[in-house]
Specification:
The complex is a heterodimer of chains A (419) and B (264). Chain A is α/β, with parallel strands linked by helices. Chain A has 17 helices and eight strands. The model of chain B has no long low-confidence stretch (mean pLDDT 89). The chains are: A alpha/beta (419), B alpha/beta (264). Bound molecules: iron/sulfur cluster.
Chain lengths: 419, 264
């Protein structure tokens, strides 16, 4: 029998470390005083890295991997497909992606590429849909296939569709182009599955997701009054990204009923969290914020509250009408920092309507869009007299101590005092 | 009541014994494994030195290792302890403070009432921090304590460009290889660190009445270089290494008197 190669040994070792990382995050949540068995479903889904094959088996649907928030989930669902977000918060798997990737790269995508390499399951994926948001996502496929030699043997890359994102969301031209892009996406998927998207299927999916958005909205309201900690919300969002919408919806509705019966816990030091995404099991910053005795009452992270960009107005129930409505929701209402006209992003802070201790702005090293927008956000925060702190970090835990020192100082700062 | 303010820092453990707001005794020991034991030994030594062995002591802990001390009576974050220590020791005059710690530099802005109104921290790189001077001292085979005297005798400051401690280390080695004298290298180090700290202080981070503390503030060479860079006068308190430990004790005393007031 052949000896496993160095790369295979590294893969096995990394798989073990990744399992531990997920388990540690889930265990930490299970041991919290606010744990209840109603959270178990979310821990089960968020608490491990699922392969595309496992997700396909669990949901009974072929998997389409996708990045970012701009590919309408309703379209995948209506075509009998299971969307699976290409996103990972696992630090351990990043190591597998280190060889051959740029040194200062988006940690979330580095981890996502590492996770793909650990799984080597690309052949089980029907297609990959990549909205052209930031440079890292545009180059994702190129980076993802740059595999070390002995991983290349076992993998084949799924067909990729680039969903071109017009970077001006408030221009009519941009909106019209995005609608066109959605029709091209539908053409692409129809070719892959060999059947047409029907109006009734799309309408059913739109209605199903409307229910999901309503539940997300309830969960967000529960965050605001102190009944749902950010770390739990991260697990809930991870389950949303990695499981079937039907299962998630049932579990989330039960959770909402449970939480609505819990006591309101107004937090003394509520903060608003902005910036680069936080994806399970990367709970580092959320844990440190809690350790510094602050409560994340709201966020506008793309894999968290920004999964819910607001309600969708459907006045025309034809396929074109539904696509127009979806385009409005997934493009015009999206606050991705890669848009050129994003001044209204600060409105989400104002809309929270809570007395805030301040804004914590999370920048993953290498995530240029959020890094750039931190300057605008800081200026706007200053103008509105809202305290602001920028935390630049990556997935590794080594800077936790210094981040904690800064967060503790931020929590104790007397922002009301005149300097 | 006697209070022990304990600052478990990254390079040194500092202990200040305080009663009625007055500093009775202080001592530092290098940080090493078994921090709890080191702190206990300092406490025992201090109580004996002030003739109060056996008395009940409130232990107020701060610093990077603050969560390592089991059974501490109070745990205080570093910046709060620092602010309180400097405010009290400066009789409320301080409006800004620059703390040069072992592994980071903190710049804190204070209101007239001593509240923290803003802060900045350089925690990305050891260059500019206390640890950096220790590393340089090792390469130069010179005590940090003699840096100021040597720098004062420098004909000209050597240019040290690296913003990273590791690269600065190799820059020092290469300057030595080029025959640049120690005095000039040390003066260059002071300038380079001062430049970096001044960069952190830019953009309105400082009010007037600036106090400098942390172990590195004991080095007048660095203080002068920083004054030059900032074009401002700096005040250094008599025991700059102990202001954080002292502030932790002050914080505990304040909490105690607030609790007493509430119960009466
Ligand atoms: S926006 Fe930032 S976090 Fe998102 S994919 Fe791009 S670099 Fe990564």
């Amino acid at each position: 029998m052949n000896e496993p190669s160095r790369q295979q040994r590294l893969t096995i070792k990394t798989q073990g470390e990744a399992r531990q990382e997920y388990a540690a995050a889930a265990d930490w949540l299970r041991q919290r005083p606010d744990y209840h068995q109603v959270f178990d479903y979310f821990l089960e889904i968020a608490g491990q890295a699922w392969t595309a094959a496992e997700v396909s088996e669990r949901t009974g649907r072929p998997v389409v991997q996708h990045l970012c928030n701009q590919a309408p989930l309703e379209i995948f669902h209506a075509m009998g497909l299971q969307p699976l977000r290409l996103a990972s918060g696992c630090c351990a798997v990043s190591r597998l992606a280190e060889a051959g990737l740029p040194a200062l790269m988006c940690p979330m995508l580095r981890s996502a590429i590492g996770a793909q390499r650990v799984q080597a399951q690309a052949s089980r994926v029907l297609a990959r849909v990549i909205p052209t948001t930031c440079d890292w996502t545009v180059k994702f496929q190129e980076l993802a296939v740059a595999l070390p030699n002995d991983l290349q043997k076992n993998s084949s890359s799924p067909p990729v569709h680039l969903l071109e994102l017009p970077h001006q969301r408030h221009s009519e031209r941009g909106q019209a182009r995005f609608q066109e892009e959605l029709f091209l996406l539908i053409d692409f998927l129809e070719q892959k599955i060999g059947r047409r998207l029907t109006r009734s299927a799309l309408l059913t999916s739109v209605n199903l997701y409307r229910e999901a958005w309503a539940v997300l909205e309830s969960l967000i309201a529960l965050r605001r009054d102190g009944r749902l900690a950010a770390a739990w919300f991260a697990a809930i969002c991870a389950a949303f990204l990695f499981d079937s919408i039907e299962r998630w919806l049932t579990a989330a509705q039960t959770l909402v009923s449970y939480l609505q019966n819990q006591k309101v816990r107004p937090a003394a030091r509520s903060v608003f969290l902005c910036g680069s995404p936080i994806i399970f099991p990367n709970l580092k910053l959320l844990r440190l914020i809690e350790e510094a005795k602050m409560y994340v009452a709201a966020d506008e992270l793309c894999a968290s509250e920004r999964l819910w960009p607001g309600g969708m107005a459907v006045d025309d129930r034809s396929v074109s009408g539904l696509i127009r409505a979806l385009a409005g929701r997934y493009h015009r209402a999206c606050q991705c920092p890669t848009f050129a006209d994003n001044e209204r992003r600060f409105n989400s802070v104002r809309a929270v309507g809570l007395p805030l201790k301040g804004i914590i702005y999370h920048v993953l090293k290498g995530c240029h869009p959020f890094d750039i927008e931190s300057l605008t956000m800081e200026r706007m925060a200053r103008e509105a007299n809202i305290p602001f702190i920028r935390i630049e970090t990556e997935y590794s835990p080594e800077d936790a101590r210094t981040i904690l020192t800064r967060l503790e100082a931020f929590a104790n700062i007397d922002h009301g005092a005149s300097a | 009541m006697i209070i022990a303010g304990i600052d478990l820092g990254s390079t040194a453990i500092k202990l200040a014994l305080v009663a009625d707001g007055q500093l009775l005794w202080h001592k530092a020991a290098p940080t090493a494994p078994g921090q709890e034991k080191i702190a206990d030994n300092l406490l025992t030594e201090g109580l004996a030195a002030v003739g109060r062995s056996g008395e009940t002591v409130v232990r107020a802990v701060t610093g990077y290792g603050k969560h390592l001390l089991v059974g501490a009576d109070r745990v205080i974050d570093e910046l709060t302890a620092n602010r309180l220590g400097v405010c009290k020791a400066s009789d409320g005059r301080a409006r800004s403070l620059i703390n040069i710690g072992g592994q980071d530099v903190k710049v804190i802005r204070l209101s007239a009432k001593g509240q923290m109104t803003g802060f900045k921290m350089n925690d990305k790189c050891a260059a500019g921090c206390g640890r950096f001077f220790e590393v340089a001292a090792r390469i130069l085979d010179t005590e940090v304590g003699s840096f100021a005297t040597l720098a004062a005798n420098a004909a000209e400051a050597a240019r040290i460009n690296s913003t990273c401690a590791v690269f600065a280390e190799s820059e020092i080695v290469s300057l030595m290889a080029q025959g640049v004298v120690k005095e000039n290298i040390i003066a260059g180090l002071h300038q380079s660190v001062a430049r970096r700290i001044a960069g952190l202080c830019a953009g309105g981070a400082l009010e007037d009445d600036i106090y400098l503390d942390g172990g590195a503030a004991q080095n007048p060479g660095l203080v002068h270089a920083l004054e030059d860079e900032l074009c401002r006068d700096l005040h250094v308190l008599p025991l700059p290494q102990f202001t954080v430990a002292y502030g932790a004790a002050i914080s505990a005393a304040m909490a105690d008197s607030a609790a007493a007031k509430n119960s009466s």
